[in-house]
Write a structure and sequence with these properties.
10 helices, single chain, disordered N terminus, TIM Barrel, binds zinc ion
Length: about 260
Amino acid sequence: MLPAACRAALFLSLCLAGPAAAQDCAGKLGTSRVMQVDPSGLQVGTKHFPQTLDLADREVVLTFDDGPLPGTTSSVLKTLARECVRATFFVIGRNAAAHPDLLRREIAEGHTVGHHSMTHPMTLADIPYDKAVADIEKGINADDKAAYGATGTRPRVPFFRFPGFGASPELLDYLKGRGIGVFGADLWASDWNPMTPEEQLSLVMARLDHAGRGIILFHDTRAQTAKMLPAFLSALKERGYRVVHIVPAPPKTATAP
Ligand SMILES: [Zn+2]
């Protein structure tokens, strides 16, 4: 059970970063800092947009898409907890509805849970606009209902990633109008392609050493990724990379005229 102050905290992750957690995390890779990200008009990730998050050299943001899924997601969570690393999960609404316990575990363990549509159409840009918007909204509602037991007019975490990075200008405008930030990626592990965990580790580390920093995309639904993750976190530590945890900045309150 978490202390009452933690349960009430807007950002659980800040609570978990307290002195007790820091002590338990001595000698681990850990999470070096929490970055508050303003979702309004946000479009980041150089694979898809001209700009990305303001990361220093050797800083990485770890993101996992398409879960939650029993088995692989549990394994990913265990590995992250062992190294005191916090990540961001972009979840599919139908998976969140099917496995709310896993979704709540992601949040309880201090991770950020963003949205990745209801049914993962490939892609939202290739289906009629109204259907695409409905799939986005159904996903957000399913995620928030599973995670928090209720939905509001605004998602708790206004972060979205397009399935297959299939964004259209109209859908980007829609999300902007809803105050929802859009995340692409700076590099990925290509873990949608079957390969051994060793091959995948070597591929992603080569890409990361080349880029030097960035938002990294994995899939917590892939067994090869779950198996590779312990070695990946060790490699980050050995090579001096630092993990940055992203959380949404609090909504702006109206200012006096
Ligand atoms: Zn996906």
